[in-house]
Structure formats: C-alpha cells, structure tokens
Amino acid sequence: MKVEKLIIGKYVEDQQKRLFELAEAAIENKTKLHVSAPVGTGKTWFAIELIKKYQKDYQFIILEPLISISSQVEKKLSKSNITVFEFNSETRNNLDEFKIEHQEKYDEKIAKEKEYFDHFSKDDSDTFEAEEISKINFVSTFDSCYRLIEENEIDINKTILIIDESHAFIQDARETFDKNVRILLNHNIPIIGLSGTASQWVLKSLFEFDHNVDITASEYPIKIIKHTKTSRIAKVIAIQINKMKNQVKVIIWTHEIKEQEKIKEAIEILNPNLKVVILNRSTKINEASELWNSIIDNEVIPDDIDVAIINKVGQMGINIINTDIKLQYLVGKFDPISFLQYVGRCRNYDDVFIYFYNDFGDDEYINEKYEESNGTGYLDFIEKEITKKKNITYKRKSEIPAESAEYYYHMEDIGIVLNRCSYAKFLYEKFRKIGPKLLLEVIEELDDSKTVRFEKYDYFDDEVYQEMIDDNNRDQWWKSFKVELPKSIIKSYREILRIASFYNSSMKNTEVTELINESVDNTKDAKSDNKLFVPKTKVEALKKATKSFSRAKLGTSRMIVTASLYDIYKDEEMIKSLIISEEVDGNTIASFMKALVFYQKTYVEHKRFINRVLKKFKGEIGNCKSATEWKNDIDAYLKSIVPAITDPLSPDKKSKYGERVTDGIEVEVYQKMFRTVKDKHKDASTGKTVNKQKLKDFSTTYKDYVVNNKSDIIKRIS
Questions:
Q1: Predicted pLDDT at 510
Q2: What is the dihedral of CA 554, 558, 564, 570, to 10 degrees?
Q3: Which of 155, 219, 697, 701 is deepest in the core (most CB within 10 A)?
Q4: Residue 122: strand, helix, or coil
Q5: With contact defined as beta carbons under 8 Å apart, do 212 and 36 qualify?
Q6: How does pLDDT run across 155-192, given as a tens digit for each residue?
Q7: Euclidean distance between the first and the last CA atom of the chain, given in angstroms as a whole number
Q8: Do the beta carbons of residue 334 and residue 255 sit within 8 Å?
Q9: Burial of 511 (0-12, 13-18, 19+ CB in 10 A)
C-alpha cells in the first residue's frame, strides 16, 4: 500500500485538488483509495463533492456502520440535491415505490422544461433535448449492502463505493461484515475509504487499499484531556456543574448506561432546575427523541437542554456544531478508537476535556503481545493473529476446534473461510478491558496526527474536593436527596405499596431491586407467578425512587410507610416531614410497617381465623385493663386455639406455642388491631390512680389503623 502524507490547515478542502486527482485515478483504474484525516476536518464534505462531480456517469453506494448514521448522511445528500435512497433491512421494500416517484418527478420536470422551450423557441429547427434522468445513489449499512449487488439494483461497471468510518470493520464488526467485503472486492468496484481513526489492518489486510492519504491538520486545535482517577465521579461532576450556576451547556460521554443514570441523578439532586437528558439506544426513540432528532437534523443540542449524557450512539458519524458548550467530560471505560471519536464530535469546542475513571483494567494480554512484536505497535498483533488463523484451512466444519468454530463460515464457491472481521473484533475487544494508563498510551500511538494531549488533572487541589470532604456539606448532600424524595413518593406511591406484600425485616436493597427487575406488567401473571405487578410505564420511576431512598441512607420500610401515608392523606408536607424529620425513629417506622404487612398479607390470608379473635374480644369493648393484661389475655386465647399462621415479618422465628404452630404471629401483631385509649382511675384495692387502656374498637383495615394511631407519627413531625 502506497502512503502519501498531506498537510492541510483545518479542513481537507485545502487539499481538494490533490484529493480529486487521486480519486479520479482510483475511479478510472478501479483501485482502492483511503483518506485518513482527523475527526471533524471535512471528510463528509469531500464525499459529497465527489458524488456531485461524478453522479452523471456513476452510481454511488455510501456505506455506514449504523442505520442512525446512514439516515443522517441521507439527509445531507438530499439537501445537496443528490438523488439518494437509504437502503437497509427496514427500507428495502420501499425501493420500488421510490423508483416510481423518482421517475414521476423527472417526467414532470421534463414536461415543464419542454413546455417552456416550445413557448420561447423562435427557430423551428431547434429541438428540445432532455437531460438524462439522474441515477439513484444508495446510502446503506455495512451489513446490508451485499443485497444491492445480489438483487441487481446497481450497474456494477458504473458504481463507485464510498466506505465511511472504515475503522468500524474492526471496532464494531458484525457477523455479516466479512461476507460483504468478499462480495464487494470480488466485483472489482473502485473504492474510496474514509476514517478519522484508521485501522492499519483494515487498510492493508482486509480491503488491501492501494493508496492511503494520511492527512495532518496544522491548524487543527489540539484537544487537551485532563485525566484523573476518582471513586466519586458522579458527585464530582454534579458539584462542578452546580458551581457553573445557570451558565450550563455540558456534554458527558460514557459507554455505561448505569453511569449515565448515576450522573443524571447526582446532577438533578444538586440542581433540580437543570434539564438533564440521557441519550442511548433506548432513550433516543423515547424520552430523548427531541435531542436525537435535533442532532441528526440540525447538528445541535437544543437550547433547553443543559446537560446531555451520551453513550456510543453518538460515537460515530454525528456532528454537534453548538458554539455554547461550556465543558465536556469523558467517564469510565473506553477503547482507543471510540475515545478519539468522542473527542472529535463537537466541531466548535476548543476547550479542555475532563476524563474521570475508576480502577479498572487488565493489561497483561496487550502488554504480552506488545513485547512479542518488539514494541512496534500495540495494535500490530491483530494482523499477525488473523494471518495465523487465515493460514489454517479446513475442508469440513467438523475439523474446526470448538473454541474457534464461531469465527468460521461457509461461503459458496470458496468453502469454509475465516470470518476475519468477527475475529478482528474479538481481538480488538481486549483493548476495551485495559486500564486507563495503558489506554492513554494506545490512544497516543493511534493518534498519528497528534490531535490530543493528556495532562494530569489534580482536582484534589480544587475547592470541589474541599466541598466534598467538608462534613457540613456532606450532610447537605444527603439532605438534598431527601428534598427530592417526596416527588418520587408522589409519582410511585401505588407501586411502592405493592412491595409491602413481599417485604420482610431482613430485606436488602439489592433484593428490592431484583424484585422490581423481575416484575410483570399484568396482575394475572403477578398472582400466578408470585411476582410484583408494575406497569411497564412505571418501572423506571419506581427504580429511581428506590435507588434515591437507598442513596439517602433511608430504609425500604420508611419508603413504604411514607407511601402508605401519602396514599391515605395525600399530604405532601406530611411526607416531607416524615422523610426529613429526625424525630420519627426506626421503631415507629417498624411499628407501622408491621401493621401494613399484617393488613396486606396476614389478615387477608387468615381473615377467617383472625375474625374469631376479634369476635372473642368484641364483648370487652369499653373494658379497662393495663397493657400487660390485654397482652396476656390475647396470648392466652391464642394458646387455646393454636392456629398455624405465618408471620411474614419474622419468617425464621419459632412459635412459643408448641410444635403445632411452626411460625406463629407475635401477640404484638394482633394488638395492632385493638384500638385503646388511656383511662386513669382509682384502683379499688389500693386507692391509687393507675393508668389503664380502655378498649374502644378494632381496626380491620390499614387505613383504620393509621387513623387510630396517627398520633404516633403526627406528634413527632408536627
């Protein structure tokens, strides 16, 4: 492969003459040309201008790694008056309709032009010559393009192939990529490849490009990446953004969806007025559709969005041209190619990036391969490993070792072949596991044009760290959770109450999360499978509520009791006080929790038996006894009838009533149903005033119980 180095100012347009000369030679000779230039230097502009120049004589296929990118490119081409159809598995059945519409538009245009010609032509010898109908160009994905050839949708002798983001053949390859490459190369089509982070294996071995143009941008701003390790990533980011007050337009890049959620939650706790949007594969068609469409259609983050937390859906092919972005973060694990891709997405951002990471990574494999290559390059081993595999031939699938079987497939007229792209991806995956120190070294090696520079970020000297370790501010952080918690209760109180049916006193937060994750969205399945019922539309809000209580160091029982009181009183101020007040202790919460579980589960399951207890004591309404006497009476009656009732709050506690009752209910649970009031009177034998409890009535619902005993909580929070 011939390598030619070009220097530009900031955009490839500076070398358009030479680039078009090389492209023309590749088209005429049906060879393969690759252009490697930093992200954001105008490779897409070059592709569009190339199509404009040759579209009268040639048909173009532009290949992208993802449908989302092909959709964006299709819009750009259409705006440039290029006839293009987006061809993929979702749209291919619409091609015939597109052809008909294209022909109708052409016929209508020619009819108008001829009418105009006939009206103004003064010489009868003049003849109207209609221009030819424009060819239909295609923008497709790497794994769909072979159908265009197999279904004869193109003139193979008049087709030019543009491969955008060529690095994806190693970084994010799918099973069909290798087959597509073989089909394309077999038809001897001129190929123009483009990448901002080119892979030498893709260039030299997979496509065997004849010529690579390696472009350096002399005026390209060097991206300063300040990096550091911290275990408090979400908090640090939240505090830094909060210090920006309302002068905020921030982008955060991270691969991990869980990390997206943590950061969003932390930011919103400190500044609930900010609009924070998570963008990933799931949210881009739901709650983040406005952001996604704005990026795809207009290449901007909308004005009303303050913080965008974006994962790998924004890694390739998108441009963001905002000039008001104040700060960009990179968070967590990355592979070297994706890291450089993220850094180049915001075209007008010239400020510092901050890269936060935790301890992670296994460097052993990559370091071992690096030493084997005598230090020639971290990624060089990929080509050598693939060559080893490729040199081993198999005639039958049964001959392939089990551990390698997934990397081979059968191709007609060839036989069993190595799926080079899948195997390359497997090898490249090792780079996703390396630690941050080695990652930075690999990025510097991959970055031929030296577009990034890493600097240590010692944020511990920053006032942010002081704010975090200050006791008062740390307490304020937890209190800020509690301010937001009432909103979660109000939004999800019905779903939270259903958790009570599964509650026991030893229940951990992880068990609550698992319960929600395994929930079902219809009551029939919930009942038959003994699972939590949560409508699909409520799952995420419920997860957020339980997570917020956990992070605020408030137990599940407090969350459930608070939800139960809101269900009864619909009093927001009351639940705010209940959450924040230090006066409502754990014992009070535990008492109400026991009552709630009793009425939701035990009373429902054993109503017939429990009503026997109530009937026994109905005749005692109005009587006065001490609390101990009431307890002893209930205890004695329970011993006499000995039912086998399970106490869901004490599943491991053995009954004191003998072997016939395996898990008996404590007397305290029954006492919750007895509504008594203090009654002072003189003892007949001693003449002293004593405190007694007068039985007024029974609470047969949880609402009755709360109303009858609300003073236990109200007096503490009023």
A1: 80
A2: -50
A3: 697
A4: coil
A5: yes
A6: 888 999 999 999 988 888 888 899 889 888 888 899 99
A7: 81
A8: yes
A9: middle
For residues 391-411, b (16+ Cβ closer than 10 Å) or e, as one string? eeebeeeeebeeeeeebbbee
pLDDT of residue 662: 30
Mean pLDDT, range 667-677, rounded to an integer: 66
Q: Which residues of 455-486 are buried (b: 16+ CB within 10 A; e: fewer)?
A: eebebeeeebbebbeeeeeeeebeebbbebbb
Nearest to 288 by CA among 279, 299, 296: 279
* 284, 313, 341, 396 from 294: Cα distances, Å: 11, 14, 20, 51
Report the alpha-carbon distance of residue 479 to residue 107 in Å, rounded.
70
Whether the CA torsion 15, 18, 24, 30 is positive or negative: it is negative
DSSP 8-state symbol, 658 = -
Give the mean pLDDT of the chain: 83
Residue 548's nearest CA partner among 422, 540, 256 is 540
Question: What are the percentages of helix, strand and coil residues in the chain, rounded to 5?
Answer: 50, 15, 35
Q: Under a CB-based contact definition with an 8 Å cutoff, are residues 2 and 212 in contact?
A: yes
| DSSP at 163 | E
Reported as a single tens digit per residue, the pLDDT across 30-65 is 999 999 998 888 898 999 999 999 988 899 999 988
Q: Which pairing describes strands 327-331 and 353-357: parallel, antiparallel, or unpaired?
A: parallel
Locate 94 and state its tokens: 């619409």
Does this model's pTM top 0.70? My answer is: no
At 510, which helix (H) or strand (E)?
A: helix 509-517
pLDDT tens figures, 520-577? 999 999 989 999 999 989 998 898 888 878 777 788 888 999 999 899 988 888 887 7
pLDDT at residue 460 is higher than 60: no
Give Dmax over CA atoms of the chain in angstroms.
Answer: 137
Let me know if domain 2-119+130-217 sits in CATH 3.40.50.300.
Answer: yes
Residue 622's φ and ψ, nearest 5 degrees, are: 100, -20
Q: Which CATH architecture has domain 223-361+435-464?
A: 3-Layer(aba) Sandwich (3.40)
Token readout for 131 is 């221009």
Locate 318 and state its tokens: 């998108």
Residues 6 or more apart whose CB falls under 8 angstroms from that of 628 comprise none
State how beta strands 408-411 and 353-357 pair. unpaired
Sign of CA dihedral 421, 369, 343, 250: positive
Q: What angle do CA 45, 50, 52 make, to 5 degrees?
A: 95
CA nearest neighbour of 358 among 460, 232, 182, 520: 232
Instruction: Return d(Cα 137, Cα 84) in angstroms, integer.
Output: 5
Provide the 10 A C-beta neighbour count for residue 348: 13
104 to 108, 110, 111, 116, 133: CA distances (angstroms): 6, 10, 10, 18, 11
